[in-house]
Write a structure and sequence with these properties.
- The protein has 3 helices and 33 strands.
- The chain starts with a strand and ends with a strand.
- Strands 2-30-28-27-26 form a 5-stranded antiparallel sheet, with no helix packed on it. Strands 5-33-32-31 form a 4-stranded antiparallel sheet, with no helix packed on it.
- The protein has 507 residues and is mostly beta strands.
- The longest helix is centred in the N-terminal third of the chain and has 21 residues.
């Protein structure tokens, strides 16, 4: 994995509704971001000031002798410097867990975001997924349009729905703190409200997890219901109805194409599509089943009745290998990560990390660019990165390539960035969504500067990993996050309080 030196510390800011902190990072073009010292003033009225990113590279200049009249100018400059130093001492970096003083409020720093939008639906959604579109890959021009599917957790079972969502007019977020001359005059930067369009499918039971097949030509979606059934839906007609408002949608689309009954009445959460249309599902009784599409039409499936056995507790997450079409990984409440091959006649696992975490292993993510790297998140709040070429040390002990204990509660979602092999997004039950760059390495001077910046109001030092790029807050009970597969650096997250769609300056 290529190594990248860390840049100067940028802003850590917060808001009453959306507490956000941006840490050392990159801009969208992977260039160093312009540094902002420390963060927010303790009185909450002003943000940190920009400073010269190249102040240490000033070339030597000839010495010019000053006449006697320059003394007054020099005194004024010294007074200004002293005033700036005094103001600098008052600035503090906000981090989750810091206590606010009386009358203090947290405010979002729009300069930390290229885009930030908040949207809500009638019922909360535990799970969502992006749906591929034909608007182009690697698109950067604002405003953006995104398609997604989500499943509800309604008050009554019969009220639940599958939601097909179209988010359009996702404009760039204007930085209100900039001077008029620094603002971009591009008309596409209008900070307007986004448009949310919704199509619905009736769904019996709450939706534990939902996954879309990442193929525009074959738009299939699968839902894991709390009834123990897995339903497969064809959403092609509903997708087309967004672009043709007058078009009629056949009533048949309200019924699943196929229902997987292999799990009986046991519900589950683990689920993942292979690009060829095969679907893996894992339940709370440790069983994993494979469902295969018979042809490319998506109209016929066969569910395997022979389970993959090896876990001893609930299977929490499943991921197909991005490289080997027959290989997949799973994680479990039994604290293990296992690697499987669907071609194995006995349906047993091929490799395992028996004690990957000291708690339930909630989520895993297979790196799509560096395919021997896998990330996992535990119920105790830690997350680890594994080099699958070397799971254990010489004594057989589980040995991750990296381990972080930043989150204070269970990790609820984890996902590698699809465009940057070293960048990882993590969400937790502590209402934080964090971005990490594992390629960051500090030299001695940078390490000292980094530690000096992380000092609390009481003078205590906070341990902040140099690899932590960004902290996004403001949602309650964050359940799942995803990077958009066609808009580099864009993310969305779902929580009890609705959806956040954003793109930071750090990635």
């Amino acid at each position: 994995m290529p190594k990248r030196q860390n840049q100067s510390t940028t802003t850590l800011t917060t808001e009453e509704k959306h507490k956000i902190a941006a840490l050392p990072g990159k801009d969208a073009d992977n260039q160093p971001t312009k540094p902002i010292e420390d963060g927010m003033d303790i009185d909450g009225d002003e943000m940190g000031e920009f400073e010269d990113a190249y102040e240490d590279e000033i070339e030597e200049e000839d010495i010019v002798e000053r006449d006697e009249d320059s003394d007054g100018v020099e005194m004024e400059e010294e007074e200004e410097e002293e005033s700036e130093e005094a103001a600098e001492k008052k600035r503090q970096v906000y981090l989750p867990g810091d206590q606010l003083g009386e009358g203090e409020v947290l405010q979002v720093d729009n300069s930390a975001y290229h885009m930030l939008h908040n949207m809500s639906v009638h019922w909360p959604c535990l799970s969502f997924d992006f749906v591929p579109d034909n608007l182009g890959n690697s698109r950067t021009a604002f405003p953006h349009t995104m398609y997604a599917v989500a499943g509800t957790q309604a008050e009554r079972s019969y009220q639940n729905q599958v939601l097909l969502l179209k988010w359009s007019q996702l404009h760039r977020t204007i930085n209100d703190d900039l001077n008029d001359e620094d603002k971009d005059d591009d008309v596409n930067d209008l900070d307007e409200d986004p448009i949310l369009e919704t199509k619905t499918l009736r769904h019996q039971g709450g939706v534990n997890r939902i996954r879309a097949l990442q193929s525009y030509q074959s738009p299939l979606t699968a839902t894991w219901a709390d009834t123990g059934k897995v339903h497969i839906w064809d959403i092609k007609k509903l997708m087309e109805s967004f672009e043709n408002p007058g078009a009629s949608v056949p009533t048949a689309v309200q019924q699943p194409l196929f229902t997987v009954a292999s799990h009986g009445r046991t519900e589950g959460y683990a689920m993942d599509w292979n690009l060829d249309g095969r679907l893996l599902t894992g339940d709370c009784s440790s069983q994993i089943y494979l469902t295969t599409r018979r042809n490319d039409t998506g109209a016929s499936f066969v569910a395997d009745r022979n389970a993959f056995r090896g876990h001893t507790a609930s299977v929490e997450d499943i991921q197909w290998s991005p490289e080997e079409a027959s290989v997949f990984a799973s994680c479990s409440v039994d604290q293990s990560i296992k690697i499987w091959d669907v071609r194995a006649k006995n349906h047993g696992y091929a490799l395992e990390v028996p004690n990957a975490h000291d708690s339930d292993v909630n989520v895993i993510s297979w790196n799509r660019k560096t395919r021997y790297l896998m990330a996992s998140g535990g119920d105790n709040g830690d997350f680890k990165v594994w080099d699958m070429r070397k799971w254990t040390d010489s004594k057989g002990r589980s040995t991750p390539a990296a381990e972080f204990n930043w989150h204070k509660q269970a990790v609820t979602s984890i996902e590698w960035c699809p465009t940057d092999e070293s960048v990882l997004a993590v969400s937790g039950a502590d209402d934080q969504l964090t971005l990490w760059d594992l390629a960051v390495e500090l030299d001695a001077e940078e390490e000292a500067r980094h530690r000096e910046a992380m000092v609390g109001a009481d003078g205590s030092r906070r341990e902040v990993p140099a690899q932590l790029l960004f902290i996004h807050q403001g949602q309650s009970q964050i359940k799942e996050l995803h990077w958009h597969p066609q808009i580099p650096g864009a993310l969305a997250s779902t929580a009890a309080t609705g959806f956040n769609v954003f793109k930071t300056i750090s990635v």
